[in-house]
């Protein structure tokens, strides 16, 4: 069997495995949502607002969740009707509306954040080194999906101006210059509140170092 054919088969098996994970996650999300009287989309918006710890405009929510403006508006209106979110004028622009959680919404968001626990338990059966490699692989996959325009950009360490990747992780750790901390691969953040997007040239340089590590 040629290397090219083997590679294609391996890619197909990985893709199929990811699709099976997607099926499990979709099923679990709907099971939780039905019990909570919400939809998975509404739960996702609640968790996003909780993670951001502050008001977000409708456009920001749509961009972060990869939803259309109409779907986002409908979901937020429903959540508002349930008393889980409220709309207020944005502080920096009185013409724009910002969405924030109510006290009930924060409680619902905490519950919504717990539905993927079934997946955490499965990942928890992996050895520490397997989890580290798995997370690193996922980060690389997420980044490629961003570059291809299939998902919105995340506030990831690997695209941050403060991130200093290690050229040899076996000898030294990565570093965040802003927080002045060292980080292993599993410490890298997918969504960091102090993220500052690096310029394109810096991103490419950082990614080249990070992606080529063994």
UniProtKB/TrEMBL annotation:
Organism domain of life: Bacteria
A molecular-function term among this protein's GO annotations: DNA-binding transcription factor activity
Domain HTH marR-type span(s) in chain numbering: 11-143
Gene3D superfamilies: Winged helix-like DNA-binding domain superfamily/Winged helix DNA-binding domain
GO biological process assignments: response to stress
Record-linked Pfam families: MarR_2 (PF12802)
InterPro entries in the record: ArsR-like_HTH (IPR011991), HTH_MarR-typ (IPR000835), MarR/SlyA-like (IPR039422), WH-like_DNA-bd_sf (IPR036388), WH_DNA-bd_sf (IPR036390)
Transmembrane segments: none
PROSITE patterns tied to this protein: HTH_MARR_2 (PS50995)
Name by which UniProt lists this protein: HTH marR-type domain-containing protein
Organism: Paraburkholderia humisilvae
Upper taxonomic lineage: Bacteria, Pseudomonadati, Pseudomonadota, Betaproteobacteria, Burkholderiales
């Amino acid at each position: 069997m040629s290397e090219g054919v083997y590679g294609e088969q391996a890619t197909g098996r990985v893709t199929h495995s990811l699709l099976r994970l997607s099926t499990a996650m979709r099923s679990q999300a709907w099971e939780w949502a039905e019990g909570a009287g919400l939809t998975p989309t509404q739960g996702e918006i609640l968790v996003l607002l909780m993670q951001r710890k502050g008001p977000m405009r409708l456009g920001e929510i749509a961009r972060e969740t990869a939803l259309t403006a109409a779907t986002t508006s409908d979901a937020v209106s429903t959540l508002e009707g349930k008393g889980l979110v409220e709309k207020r004028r944005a502080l920096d622009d009185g013409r724009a509306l910002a969405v924030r959680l109510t006290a009930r919404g924060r409680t619902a968001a905490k519950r919504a954040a717990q539905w993927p626990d079934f997946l955490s338990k499965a990942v928890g059966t992996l050895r520490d080194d397997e989890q580290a490699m798995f997370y690193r692989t996922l980060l690389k996959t997420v980044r490629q999906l961003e570059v291809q325009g299939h998902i919105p950009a995340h506030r990831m360490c690997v695209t941050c101006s403060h991130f200093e990747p290690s050229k040899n992780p076996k000898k030294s750790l990565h570093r965040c210059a802003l927080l002045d901390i060292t980080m292993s691969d599993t410490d890298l953040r997918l969504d960091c509140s102090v993220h500052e997007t690096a310029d394109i040239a810096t991103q490419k340089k950082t990614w080249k170092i990070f992606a080529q590590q063994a």
